[in-house]
Amino acid sequence: MDITFENVTYIYQKNSPFEHKALENLSLHIESGSYVAVVGHTGSGKSTLISHLNGLSIPTEGKVKIGKYALSENEKINDMKELRSKVGVVFQYPEHQLFEETVEKDIAFGPENFGVPKNEIKTRIQKIIPAVGLSEDLLERSPFDLSGGQMRRVAIAGVLAVKPDVLVLDEPTAGLDPRGQKEMMDMFYQLHKEQGTTTILVTHSMEDALKYADHVIILNKGTKYMEGKPEDVFVQREALNRVQLDVPEIVQFISEFNERFDTTIPFQNQSMTELAQMIQRTLKGAESP
Amino acid sequence: MNNSLIIGQYVPGTSIVHRLDPRTKITIIFFYVFIVFFANNLPSYGILILFALASTFISRVPIRFIMKGLTPVWFLIIFTFILHLFVTKEGTVIFDFWIFKFYSGGVIQGIAISIRFFLLILVTSLLTLTTTPIEITDAIEDMLRPLNKVKFPVHELALMMSISLRFIPTLMQETDKISRAQASRGVDFRTGPVKERIKAIVPLLVPLFVSAFKRAEELAMAMEARGYQGGHGRSKLRELKIEKIDILVYFVFLAVITVLLLTRTYG
Lengths: 289, 267
Prior knowledge:
The complex is a heterodimer of chains A (about 290) and B (about 270). By secondary structure, chain A is of the alpha/beta class. Chain A has eleven helices and ten strands.
């Protein structure tokens, strides 16, 4: 499903002393089947943007289009449920939403609400459990007996079990150990590749944005600050520093290397190995006349 | 988030009303609540209304904001008025309609009670609008200090109050967050039959309780780690101090009481 924001402004607690503009005149387009990273400093409007994606917030001004659904001040749709079954959101610390007696029931909660038949839910759970890195004997346990990382996986499984067309991830790996983070991100990427799920990743991590996304949107103070391919956006160091963001480590490394050895190695979103080979070639080339 | 009820919502400011010692504000409101019931004629109501409106004006809290916050209370005020209209049978009949007879006494009573209601709510919400919850708790702790003599745990009570006040916004945020998460999983809190909507509360309440308990445990641990042992010998970060302006306000309020007692009708 294509997602389009047309001049969206969102104001919290309008007409009160606490009035606060979270989004201002934001326009953007997310193509169906793409992997988009939304990056921004704290308070840049990332979370507000997310809540517009499944109708939790309705724009104060402007219009949001998600597939065939349009959301604006004057066109409210009656069947939010249908939209929400298509757009799955993994919120920050999703383990806080667990409540059922067993892991299985909690994962089944979403699909049940959206009217997925019981046996279909069962087969979905069978598939999802290994995909999120859980073992099947946990299904009968209480989610509150699990470790933090396992709880996170259960909560994510609960969102995936709905089989959404669009998957929105709000800092899905915050607070996990490095290995867990990598596993989780790889899992989402695989899902994106295999099922063609439109994935929107909201993150602080430039590394993740660079590694997985094919389009990056940088938000600042509720407006779009930059947008483009990761390899084009992440080389603009000054512009990023201005909104309290850093360039990814590899970009940082290349620019420092170029400066010290007076070389001109370009950044093309290459892997570590490729970069090593490039460096080798450049240095060798410099030696021989 | 539902923010229509303003009681307990602080609006930052630097007006005289904001800067008054919280004890002064609490004392004055305490007595104001009493004397509202002494007023019984036009001038005595006039002086009370003047005092309330003047305080509101000086506080610089936007009128529109106060009015919006009073919306849930309007219903109560109007209901009381109508009740008086129908029930009170004093004075002369001014209007006769079918089986109902409206008396002049009813109208006057209705207006009077509504004004009292309005004044009470206006003044008390002015307290919470211009005073931070922490200031209020500090003031209450200070004012209850004599009860320490009879072994009443004043400090602990104040601590409990300030902790619960401190966590109201946190819990509200948490509720908001969880209800959004569950709404995304297909829970419908707004529409549907009542039975379904009551069932929809479970996925909200369970996580809320879990996180509240967890938070309480963490807070207790953090307090102990920082050496908290109770109220004995604890010094204060914010010392309450009665300033000249407080004394002045007390005198103004005494004048209001005097005028009220002089103008009200007796007997």
